[in-house]
Amino acid sequence: MPGKSRLNATVTLRAKRERKAITLDIKLEVLRRFEEGEKLSQIAKALGLAVSTVATIRDNKEKIKASSQIATPLRASQLTRHRSAVMETMERLLHVWLEDQSQRNMPLSVTIIQEKAKSLFDDLQREQDGSSQKEKFSASKGWFVRFKERHSLPHFKMNSTAPGNKDAYPEVLKSIIEEGMWLLKRL
């Protein structure tokens, strides 16, 4: 059965190896060990890598070190962004406005809050028109969700029936008054 063993060997050789992602942290560990004088085969065995992979990492030493200097810290648990002063001020003002609206029991919707945020942002940016770079802000739903998280407003109840347009308030008020009058007549 010599033919059968050749067939198995051919199949085994053609099978693709699963690729393994190598993190920047591992690459830097390889370079550190290599600089300490460890041999390629020792490094490969210790880290569970192929010798050719360790050699490639060694050969790309400069690129890897350059990448590590501009990369996010290796053990950072979350990325942070620096927000502009206009954005910070707008969110503080919006938070105060929301608290005021809540105390007045005004009906609010996501759309109304987004419109108010956009309006505040535009006003603040107009005040700062000396800045050469205009920041863009769209008051998206994603921004709103993150805004609620940043300002600890999970308790903030949204009125789903609140109108999305400020001009619709008189209609809502009129319907509330009519309903109240109807109830009074029945008593």
TrEMBL record:
Location of the HTH CENPB-type domain: 78-157
Statement: the UniProt record of this protein carries the keyword Glycoprotein: no
Any Pfam family hit: HTH_Tnp_Tc5
GO CC annotation, single: nucleus
Chief site of localization: nucleus
GO molecular function: DNA binding
Protein name: CENPB DNA-binding domain-containing protein 1
DNA-binding region(s) in UniProt: 40-60
InterPro entries per UniProt: CenT-Element_Derived, Homeodomain-like_sf, HTH_CenpB_DNA-bd_dom, HTH_Psq, WH-like_DNA-bd_sf
Keyword DNA damage set for record: no
Cellular localization per UniProt: Nucleus
Keywords: DNA-binding, Nucleus
Biological classification of the source: Eukaryota, Metazoa, Chordata, Craniata, Vertebrata
Residue ranges of every copy of the HTH psq-type domain listed in the record: 13-64
Gene3D superfamilies, sorted: Homeodomain-like, Winged helix-like DNA-binding domain superfamily/Winged helix DNA-binding domain
PANTHER family to which the protein is assigned, alphabetical: HTH CENPB-TYPE DOMAIN-CONTAINING PROTEIN, TRANSPOSON
